[in-house]
Write a structure and sequence with these properties.
14 helices, 39 strands
C-alpha cells in the first residue's frame, strides 16, 4: 500500500542491539536480576557461552526431529513451494517500470529487477536485473539481506538501498542509481548499522534519522533526532532539524509530498508511547507548531487538494465528533496557512464491525481497504463538487482483499484476492474500468474434500470471539482430528483468511485441520477491538484464545491431545500464555520468535517500545498485571505441560532470542520436555533463504505430527 509513506510511523517491532540490565541482584525498580534469574546471561545474543548453549540445543533438537523418516519429504514439499518460479511476482510502480524483488533456488538472497507494464501483463515477462544481492554478498563477504529502497520522487532514479548483514532489522544504507544499476561512487553512505531511515529533500539533500551516537537514541533504543545531510559533507557535521525526547519511543521529521512528489510541508512526530504520538508542523517562520489532534490520530496523505487524517479515537472538534477509525479532511491550502484553524470535514466513518485496512493514492484518487465483519472490500474516494464521494471497487465477495500496488503517475492500481483454499489472484485496472484478473498463483495443495466454516467462542467475560476452521468436509465430531490453531491478538494487527499454501500441503493434505482465531487486541474490528485488550486488560487476549481452544474441544472438532497451537512474536507470547495457563487443553505448542519473559521484556531487544501495549513492569501496579501471565515466570515444577517447541533467530534484534532461550532453559530446569531450535541467521522473520525456511517448516510439522497425530 502506498500513502504518503513518510508520514507513517512504522507500527512494527523494530531496531538494533541488545540492552543489558541490572548486573547485580534485583534492581531498585523491582526488575528481576541475576539473584532471581539465573539465565540473564542468555540475553547476550552472541556471547561465546550463549552460542555454545544454542549449538548444543540445536544439535539435540535436530538429532531427534531430522531423523524422522518424513522430514526430507516435508522439507522438499516446502522448498518446492518457496522456490517455485510460477508464483506471482508482486511489483511496485515506478516511472521506469514495475519493480520486483525475487528469490529462488538460483538466487537465494534475491534479485531486484524490473519490467514494463506491457511485459508484466504477458505470461512470461522479460525482467532486467537491477541489483543482484547474491553477487554483492559474495563480492563483499557479507550475508546481505535486502531491506528495501528509499528513492527521490518523482523520477525515483536516485535511491538509498538498505542492507542488513544476516537479517537483523538494523541496516546500512548506500546511494544507488537505478538507471546505471550501480552504487554511486562517493555518494551518500551510512556505513554504521542502525535502525532509522532517510528521506530525499532533493538530489543533494537527505533527512536522516539514525543512531548518531550518545544522546540520539530513546530509552527504547530508537532514533529521536533528524538531521539535514548535504552531499559532500560529513554526516557528523549535518545540522539537526528536529529533536524529540529520550523518553519518547521514537521521534523524527518528515516531508509531506503529494502523489506527484511535490513537497507541501515538513512535519515531525514524537511517539510518546507505541500507540500515541504528538505531531508538529514547521511553519514559514521555521517554528514547530504542535498539531491540535488526538494522540491516537495521525496524518494519512494528500488527495485532491486535501490533507487527510485518520483517528483511532473519537475526535471532538468545532462542535463535531468524528468517530474512531474515521478519515477526516482539511483543505490543503488552509492547512498550510494555519493547520489548527483549518476546517475539518468527514471523508468516511466505519459502520458496525467495519474497519480500515490499508490504502493507496493514485494520481487522482484515494483507495481504502476495509474489513466488513472480517470480509475484505475496497472503496475509491474522490472530492467532487465540494463533497467527498465514494464507490466500492468491483472485486470478488467473501474473500480477503488487499491493495497490492498503485501508480503515482496514473490511475493504475492492483489488488489481491485470496482465501484459505483458493490461491491468490492479482487484479489490475488502468482506471478505465473494473479490475480484471491479471495473474493467479498456482495451487499448492489439493483442496478437494476441504471446507471452511466460521464459528464463535464465548470468552471469559462473555464476549463472542469469531474463528475460522478449515477442515475435511463432513468431518466426524469425535475429537480425533489433529487441529493446528493460531492467532495474534496484538498491536491492532488483524489476522485474516489467506491461502494456506505450504500449510495446506504439509498439514491439511495429511488430514489435519487449521483454525484462525480473531482475538481482541488485534485489528479485525477496528481500534476498539484492540484497545479493549491492552495493558491492564491484556489477559482478555489470552482468555479469548483459550476460549476458542475450549470451544473446539466442546464441539467435538478435536481433543486436547490433538490440539496444537502456534504463534510468532506477540503470537509467541500468546502461545506461551496459553500452554502455561491451560496446559490441560493443548497437546503441542510452537512458540516462534516470542516475547516470553515479560518482567524483563523492556530491557531485552526493543521491548521498552511496547510498554503502551503491555504496561511497565517497573511500576508495581503494572507489574502485577504482567506477573499474572508472564510465561517465563509461570513455568512451574510438577505441571504436565505439552512438550513445547521454541524457536528463535540469533540475528533477531526485535524481540531477541533471549526470550525463547530463557523459556527453554527454565523448562529444562523444572524437568519438562521441550524442543529448542535457533536459526543462526535470518532475523525476526526467520531464515534468510528458502532452504532454511523450508527446513524450519519441516521441523515444525514433524513436531506437530509426532505430538498430535502419532500414537
Amino acid at each position: 500500500m502506498k500513502l504518503v509513506s513518510t508520514l507513517a510511523m512504522a507500527a512494527v517491532m523494530t531496531i538494533g542491539a541488545v540492552t543489558s540490565a541490572n548486573a547485580q541482584g534485583q534492581s531498585s525498580d523491582g526488575v528481576p536480576g541475576p539473584d532471581e534469574d539465573p539465565y540473564i546471561w542468555l540475553e547476550e545474543a552472541r556471547s561465546d557461552e550463549a552460542l555454545a548453549w544454542v549449538t548444543a540445543e540445536n544439535e539435540r533438537t535436530l538429532g531427534e526431529l531430522e531423523e524422522d523418516p518424513r522430514f526430507e519429504t516435508l522439507k522438499a514439499e516446502a522448498l518446492a513451494i518457496f522456490d517455485s518460479e510460477d508464483r506471482i511476482p508482486f511489483v511496485s510502480f515506478r516511472p521506469d517500470g514495475l519493480y520486483n524483488f525475487w528469490q529462488d533456488k538460483e538466487n537465494p538472497k534475491g534479485l531486484l529487477r524490473r519490467t514494463s507494464v506491457e511485459s508484466y501483463q504477458s505470461e512470461n515477462p522479460e525482467w532486467e536485473t537491477v541489483l543482484d544481492v547474491d553477487a554483492l554478498a559474495a563480492a563483499e563477504g557479507k550475508e546481505w539481506v535486502y531491506k528495501g529502497s528509499t528513492c527521490l520522487p518523482p523520477k525515483m532514479e536516485m535511491c538509498m538501498i538498505a542492507l542488513s548483514d544476516g537479517g537483523e532489522d538494523a541496516t546500512i544504507m548506500r546511494e544507488f542509481n537505478m538507471t546505471t544499476k550501480e552504487f554511486v561512487e562517493g555518494g551518500f553512505e551510512l556505513s554504521e548499522k542502525s535502525q532509522g531511515g532517510v528521506q530525499w529533500l532533493d538530489e543533494d539533500t537527505l533527512f536522516v534519522g539514525r543512531d548518531f551516537g550518545e544522546g540520539t537514541l530513546t530509552d527504547s533504543e530508537y532514533p529521536f533526532t533528524t538531521r539535514v545531510w548535504k552531499r559532500g559533507t560529513d554526516i557528523a557535521d549535518a545540522n539537526e532539524l528536529y529533536r524529540g525526547e529520550a523518553s519518547d519511543v521514537w521521534a523524527g521529521a518528515n516531508l509531506v509530498r503529494d502523489a506527484s512528489g511535490e513537497i507541501h510541508a515538513t512535519t515531525a512526530f514524537r511517539g510518546v508511547s507505541f500507540h500515541e504520538s504528538e505531531y508538529y508542523w514547521l511553519n514559514p517562520a521555521f517554528d514547530w507548531v504542535k498539531l491540535d489532534i488526538p494522540k491516537k490520530a495521525s496524518p494519512y496523505g494528500i488527495v485532491d487538494g486535501h490533507m487527510l487524517f485518520s483517528t483511532d479515537v473519537d475526535w471532538e472538534v468545532d462542535g463535531q465528533t468524528f468517530p474512531a477509525d474515521s478519515l477526516i479532511a482539511v483543505d490543503l491550502e488552509e492547512f498550510k496557512v494555519d493547520p489548527n484553524a483549518a476546517t475539518k470535514t468527514l471523508v468516511w466513518a466505519p459502520g458496525e464491525r467495519q474497519t480500515k485496512r490499508g490504502g493507496a493514492i493514485t494520481a487522482g484518487a484515494l483507495y481504502v481497504g476495509l474489513l466488513d465483519n472480517v470480509i475484505g472490500k475496497v472503496l475509491k474516494f474522490n472530492f467532487e463538487d465540494g463533497a467527498w464521494v465514494s464507490e466500492e471497487v468491483a472485486l470478488p465477495d467473501n474473500a480477503t482483499v488487499g491493495i497490492a500496488a498503485s501508480s503515482n503517475e496514473s490511475e493504475q492500481i492492483m489488488f489481491t484476492v485470496t482465501d484459505f483454499l483458493n490461491p491468490t489472484t492479482l487484479y489490475y485496472t488502468d482506471g478505465s474500468g473494473a479490475p480484471q484478473p491479471l495473474k493467479t498463483s498456482p495451487a499448492r495443495f489439493d483442496p478437494t474434500g476441504m471446507e471452511v466454516e466460521q464459528f464463535s467462542a464465548t470468552s471469559a467475560d462473555g464476549t463472542k470471539i469469531p474463528y475460522f476452521i478449515v477442515k475435511p468436509s463432513g468431518m466426524e465430531l469425535n475429537g480425533e482430528t489433529a487441529v493446528l490453531m493460531t492467532g495474534y491478538g496484538g498491536f491492532q494487527i488483524p489476522r485474516l483468511p489467506a491461502y494456506l499454501g505450504s500449510t495446506g500441503k504439509m498439514w491439511l493434505e495429511r488430514g489435519g485441520a487449521y483454525v484462525l482465531a480473531n482475538l481482541r487486541g488485534g485489528g479485525e474490528f477496528g481500534p476498539g477491538w484492540h484497545q479493549t485488550a491492552i495493558r491492564e486488560n491484556k489477559q482478555r487476549t489470552w482468555d479469548d484464545f483459550i476460549a476458542v481452544g475450549q470451544d473446539l474441544v466442546d464441539r467435538g472438532f478435536t481433543a486436547p491431545e490433538h490440539l496444537g497451537i502456534q504463534g510468532g512474536s506477540q503470537g509467541g507470547l500468546l502461545v506461551g500464555t496459553a500452554f502455561t495457563q491451560r496446559p490441560d487443553l493443548f497437546g503441542a505448542a510452537i512458540v516462534q520468535i516470542p516475547l516470553f519473559d515479560m518482567l524483563r521484556y523492556h530491557v531485552i531487544g526493543r521491548g521498552a517500545s511496547w510498554i503502551g501495549e503491555y504496561g511497565d513492569p517497573r511500576i508495581p501496579e503494572q507489574r502485577a498485571w504482567i506477573e499474572g501471565y508472564s510465561p517465563y515466570q509461570m513455568i512451574k515444577e510438577g505441571v504436565d505441560y505439552p512438550t513445547p517447541f521454541l524457536w528463535a533467530s540469533t540475528a533477531d534484534d526485535r524481540t531477541h532470542p533471549a526470550h525463547a532461550r530463557k523459556g527453554a532453559a527454565r523448562l529444562k530446569e523444572q524437568g519438562h520436555p521441550y524442543y529448542y531450535f535457533e536459526d543462526m541467521t535470518g532475523g525476526h522473520s526467520g531464515g534468510v533463504d528458502n532452504e532454511q525456511r523450508a527446513k524450519l517448516q519441516a521441523l515444525q510439522y514433524i513436531y506437530l505430527m509426532q505430538q498430535l497425530m502419532d500414537e
